[in-house]
Amino acid sequence: MENLIERDKKTILIVDDEQPIIDILVYNLQKEGYETLEANDGITAVDIALEKKPDLILLDIMLPKMDGLSVCKRIRHTLNVPILMLTAKDEEIDKILGLELGADDYVTKPFSVRELMARIKANLRKADITSNVISEENRKQEDNTNKIIVGDLSLDLDKFEVRVKNEVMDLTLREFEVLKYLASQPGQVVTRETLLEKVWGYEYYGDIRTVDVTVRRIREKIEKDTSNPKILITKRGVGYYIAS
After folding, report:
1. DSSP percent split of the chain into helix, strand, coil, nearest 5
2. Segments of the chain with pLDDT less than 50
3. d(Cα 160, Cα 167) in Å, to the nearest integer?
4. What is the pTM of this model?
5. Helix extents (H) in the chain
6. How far apart are the C-alpha atoms of 177 and 227, rounded to whole Å?
7. CA–CA separation, 191 vs 203, rounded Å?
């Protein structure tokens, strides 16, 4: 029984060049029942991530040997685990760039440990739900394919595949989840707050900007002209919807 419990523990990789930050995070994460891995530079982080395959990664932007944005990009080629960027810099460009390279969210230093723990739990919970859905869908027969089709947009929920005019689009899991949520209710405007809660799992914490950046990434992949979108539409001051 003990071995089973140990195997069920979630592992979190902490990447930061400031050892006091790592120590604080290790203490709090282990207190919450998580296993922890540590890396003080970008190259070590990539090596550990690819070898150990943690369940979630806390990744600082300012790192020696390889910066956090490059680490994020490298890891994303192989792993689809939640990545939370930690940044001491307040420039918007760093935060947005981190999301565009595949990070799921960011937390600005100095951060509240309570807020960070809430975000970690929300991301792990969402990853678990998605993983269970994939496992369940994979058991279905091929002829029982579950699809959402709205105009030129087609989502295959069994294969986690998006097509526009029958051309396959390469979306991340998070982007797929956003598109799926919107496409399941075409024509209905969904607020950023609702998307943050339903897709990211954040009820109290989370930056609305995260939603905007993710939508922008989706548009760059599925729209012919991002300045004049025909599929994923903005309702100014309210939210987003899929054109029905």
Report:
1. 45, 20, 35
2. 1-7, 134, 138-144
3. 14
4. 0.68
5. 2-8, 19-31, 42-52, 68-76, 92-100, 113-138, 173-183, 192-195, 208-222
6. 23
7. 13
